[in-house]
Amino acid sequence: MGGIDKFGTKEQKDRYLPGMAKGKILGAFGLTEPNHGSDPGSMETTARPHPSKLGYFSISGSKTWITNSPIADVMLVWAKLQSTGKIRGFLIERAACPPGALGTPAIKNKNGLRASITGMIQLDECPVPKENMFPNIEGLKGPFACLNSARYGIAWGTIGALEDCIDRTRTYALERKQFKGNPLAKYQLVQKKLADAVTDAAYGILAATQVGRLIDEGKALPEMISMIKRQNCDRALANARKLQEIFGGNAVSDEYGIGRHVANLFVTQTYEGQSDIHSMFLLLENPA
């Protein structure tokens, strides 16, 4: 929805956004490819004038790790124009694709984000009308603008997951008795792990709040979002792994939830720009 709202024509906005806002139209965002994750500029998905349908593009290529692709009604797919090599955004409607032109198989047996419906977008000479292309945005500026919005949300969500880890661990440490009937929470090694996690959660919330205020004021820079996305993901994952130790063998059981958070937080550290990539962004923008 963010991409359509920011870069779409009035007709595209009127056609898709009301239904998407009501949950009647499901969307997906297709940028990552099997051979190009952190390097989207090298994407292989291409768009060329359709050989037999006037006013249409023919799009071929594959996207992967796409949330909602198996159930999406409309997919925002980024592809290179064969004629210019420039990246453009296209809105592909499932119902309008002929048989064999669009495939969206689900990715099964994931270790993390198991509740998310994740899949691929496979395009084979898929016809897309020219009016479904974003008219005034080209290159990586378009997808990166969408990713910045997602990254800011992730900076909040990871701290929310960490807060749930803290709550679950505190409850467990108070209830679990070891060594002459003492609760685990009595021991300073356990207390320190909780104190470290609470501290990082507080700092993460404050950082995300401040960047949100700057966004509202039109003063935020992309590297600010890279910084809080990277830091909050990294600290949430590191603390969740340390808190997991307090559960001992019970940590591997779904009943306690802590292992699920650890698996999911690893994914958040990876998607929308892996932490090492965000480190590079920060160094490139702020060289020593």
UniProtKB/TrEMBL annotation:
Among its keywords, does the record have Hydrolase?
Answer: no
> What is the protein name for this chain?
Glutaryl-CoA dehydrogenase
Q: Which cofactor does it need?
A: FAD
Q: Pfam families of this UniProt entry?
A: Acyl-CoA_dh_1, Acyl-CoA_dh_M
Instruction: Kindly list the GO molecular function terms attached to this UniProt entry.
Output: fatty-acyl-CoA binding; flavin adenine dinucleotide binding; glutaryl-CoA dehydrogenase activity
Q: Show where the Acyl-CoA oxidase/dehydrogenase middle domain sits.
A: 28-126
- CC per GO annotation: mitochondrial inner membrane; mitochondrial matrix
Residues that span the membrane, as ranges: none
The protein's superkingdom reads Eukaryota
Member of which family?
Belongs to the acyl-CoA dehydrogenase family.
Localization of this protein: Mitochondrion matrix
Biological processes, Gene Ontology terms: fatty acid beta-oxidation using acyl-CoA dehydrogenase; fatty-acyl-CoA biosynthetic process
Acyl-CoA dehydrogenase/oxidase C-terminal domain sequence ranges: 145-280
Q: Which InterPro entries match?
A: Acyl-CoA_Oxase/DH_mid-dom, Acyl-CoA_Oxase/DH_mid-dom_sf, AcylCo_DH-like_C, AcylCo_DH/oxidase_C, AcylCoA_DH/ox_N_sf, AcylCoA_DH/oxidase_NM_dom_sf, Glutaryl-CoA_DH_mitochondrial
Q: Keywords for this entry?
A: FAD, Flavoprotein, Mitochondrion, Oxidoreductase, Transit peptide
